[in-house]
């Protein structure tokens, strides 16, 4: 078996490159590329973690400033505290509200990029992309399932043990795969 055939047999099962991620992200339209290694996924995860932290910090800043303004102008009750910052730091309700707000923005970052292009910024930098392994379009519910099952990144460790398939836990659950793209295939202008 030639090198080219070996490389092809380890990758995706389909042949054509999609022109539209949302409508054609199915098995029949997945490019014939090798599944991503653990190391490439780890590098993309590190990159995406930095971006997600920045998204979280910006979203936290926005909600804290809004809460401070609302509390300072007596739109919201100070509940006996002297300063808005004391109330925000002491109230479990405000802490929970901030955590939900930040978590929603961080989750939205991953979901939006996966849905709109099949890649987050880190995946784009390392030429990785998510594709469906079944003949179904990539839906928001499948992406949410993938996100929830990938929290903490522990599911990605499965790639180290599943050398043949190179699929993480979240890929198996959401029926997706992460492939390594060529430079040409990573160019969004060609989609």
Quick overview:
The chain has helices at residues 3-10, 21-24, 38-72, 84-90, 92-117, 121-125, 140-149, 158-161, 169-174; strands at residues 128-132, 176-180. With 191 residues, it is mainly alpha-helical.
Structure description:
This protein has helices at 3-10, 21-24, 38-72, 84-90, 92-117, 121-125, 140-149, 158-161, 169-174, and strands at 128-132, 176-180. The protein is elongated and about 60 Å long. It is built from nine helices and two strands. Helix 4 (84-90) crosses helix 5 (92-117). Helix content is 55%, strand content 5%. It is mainly alpha-helical and 191 residues long. The chain has one domain (25-183).
Q: What's the number of structural domains?
A: 1
Q: Which structural class do the helices and strands define?
A: mainly alpha
How many separate helices? 9
Strand order of the largest sheet: 1-2
User: What fraction of the residues are assigned to beta strands by DSSP?
Assistant: 5-15%
Averaged pLDDT, please? 84
The biggest sheet amounts to: 2 strands, antiparallel
H-E string: HHHHHHEHHHE
What proportion of the residues is helical, as a percent range? Answer: 40-55%
Stretches where pLDDT is under 50 for at least 5 consecutive residues are 1-31
Instruction: Report the span from N to C terminus.
Output: 32 Å
Subunit organisation of the chains? single chain
Molecular shape:
elongated
Got a strand count? Answer: 2
Report the radius of gyration as a whole number of Å: 21 Å
